[in-house]
Amino acid sequence: MMSSAKQGGPVQPSVSVWRPLSGDEIKVTGGIWAQKQQLNAGAILRHCESWMERIGWTGNFDRAAAGTIDGAHAGIEFVDSEVYKLLEAMAWELGRAYSADLDHRFRALVDRVAAAQEADGYLHTSFGRPGQRPRYSDLESGHELYCFGHLFQAAVARLRTGHDDRLPQVARRLADHVSDQFGPAGRVAVCGHPEIEMALVELARATGEQRYLELARLFVERRGTGTLAAHSFGQEYFQDDIPVREATTLRGHAVRALYLACGALDVATETGDDELSAAVRRQWASGVSRRTYITGGVGSHHQDEAYGDDFELPADRAYAETCAGIASVMLSWRLLLATGEDKYADLIERTLLNNVLASPRVDGRAFYYTNTLHQRTPGLVPDEDQLVHRAESGLRAPWFEVSCCPTNVSRTLASVSLYFATASDDGIQLHQYGDYRISTELAAGAVVLQVSSDYPAGGPVSVTVIDAPGRELTLRFRMPAWARGRATLSEPPTVKTARFAEVRRVFRPGETVTVTFPDEARATYPDPRIDAARGTFAVERGPLVLALESPDLPSAWSVNEISADPHSIAVEGGGAAIDVYRHKPSEEEWPYYDGPGTGASERARARLIPYHQWANRGPSTMRAWLPLVQGNG
Ligand SMILES: [Zn+2]
């Protein structure tokens, strides 16, 4: 039987404004998220398993256990982490929708991992065995502690779905080993890739072992004190340039920066460190206002997968790694729980729907690693049996040499409902809209709600009360920033601000509260400091960023030679339609002129589709920012 005390979501702070729900308390029941969770269960999990089996990443554990790994390790040194993220995805999925087949596959994989654990708890397939590099000999690039962090998060998923069995046992032995090695009496060092910090805090929360929290605190405090050797991209690359509490913005490698911020906030929350918490909030605010793409994606430097300078956000060089988007969601969720501020839920919505959802192909067998906002040349169709380099953005690829994103997408989809709503003693807070059921026990009594909608497509969101105590409850609705204060409720709210509305009363079973959002497509203009997007606009509909893709243009037109008229936008299908103009200067002409703009020659009506759906119709070109047509109309 499950132990309910341990259940919950990926993040379970001991102190929070609202209480996160567990997988038993909130389930997706329809709409786009049901489709994506089905895709994950039916295709993505298997895809990840079969790829890692075929190319030997899972077999690394067998060879390590058998003593034959010397010279036979498959993949780069941190591929253990992909197996762990797959285990985490499987654990959440088993909690969401149990299947005996998946349970068997999960347990078999855990057994193979466990067999490779050494007598003192250490567990890594790339280091420490005869013929391999010594343990902890390359903390800058070896990713040992990073891999451990993903194992801990997988174990936490197992615990939070009610099972204290073999995987959590392996994780405790490993965490005890790491505490001995790097704890107060151990070596003063950190991992080049943050990740273990937040994982240790969560393992402490899930097991009650305070040593893990103390170790996380030490790792956060040591960061920025120069324990890592010089990196060719500079110490900012792995956030070792300045201490976390002194940093003013998110910088360097984007996934590392965001994972570190998650861990720092977790430590701050558990230790009551208000200064550290304020530092993370400051970094989030600066990063979001100056270094984030309209899709919520982050990172504009390909070479070091890093944040660029403030407002350095070129569409055609957007790196916007899927994992960075997921990391951003993880950070915003922690901040939402810690502060109750709706701006964090706004960014979660934007990033999930426009960055993270863009990654998996409609069949779940190929992924984007980078998420460009402007594809200038049609991508090549990838070989479905070959590894590809991570930074290719033309078409989604089946697997990568560094394949962090597919398993990250999988664990996120399996647990995505846990980011949708929270509870308090006498109320429920709806942060994300969709189609899902909440069934939970509050101090005020049992509450069951059915949230029904086609969101993010248009139409109202209705919340039907299935069960409620005969006492006053507060239903709290986020008013998305994109709705600009024009969302309306079916009854007068008790409290209403630009950011949220509350209805507080006694609810009876069968009653429904409906929220209606403006259903319109709108032009959005970039801050002029974003030089690379100046003179352009994007089109958004509800929470979705739309894109112009070449199959929706007249044949022979390219997205690279068009401008568009923001006054011509109209809702159409699941996206919008717009007037576009073709500019076709002679091919050999010097592309600089003695006046602004070139005349438009032809006009056409084109369809805009949700950005996350692009590149599902074969090789194409695409752009999200549309140049403003000049002197036309
Ligand atoms: Zn990734």
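^ zinc ion complex. The chain has 13 helices and 22 strands. The CA atoms of residues 426 and 444 lie 5 Å apart.
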